[in-house]
Write a structure and sequence with these properties.
This protein is α+β, with helices and mostly antiparallel strands. Helix content is 46%, strand content 24%. It has one domain. The protein is elongated and about 80 Å long.
Amino acid sequence: MKTLFGLMMIFFFLLLPFLLIGFVVWLIRKSASMNAQKFSKIASALSGEVVKDAKGNPIYVRVATDRADVRIFTSRERPSASDDSPPNEYLVMQLMLPLGFTMFLSRDNAIFKLFGKLGAVTDINVGDPEFDKKFLIRSDTPAPVIAYLQNPDRRAAIYNLEKKHFQMLIVRPDCIEIRKMYFPNPDLIEANLVDYIASLKQLVD
């Protein structure tokens, strides 16, 4: 009896690595399937196109607008490099329209630590006490950023995005990007996605 039990234990421990590998593969496939469904829902809601990599994995959804293409995807990021907590998932929307400068804007100083390595080295005030108190702004090109944000319509658009729980505005060399924590409900609802794109366009309209 002991011999049989011992053989069963040996068999179990020999089989365990294969079970673990199978479980990991199942998780990866399940995650990929859920990710594909998410991209498909966004594309369907916005009459967009799912852009895939060479292996057929979705990269982003491309949506044509009257100003420029919008790219939509999700990204997982930890609150800080030293944080062992699970990464946060962000909904990212990019309007592929260069503004001629770079900028990082957020209310959350912790987010600056995460996304601060963007060449944005100078803290900026735009001359609006309420706006300057509420938002942290950095850029390596302060003059055009100040000119951009001194337009009251731009500041109103940023306040509007904040009300929709967008936490970051990043002006990259090739696009304007907004980010918020991703939640399937409400972020996969068609009316909300359409509203997000309209709010993004207000940054340049």
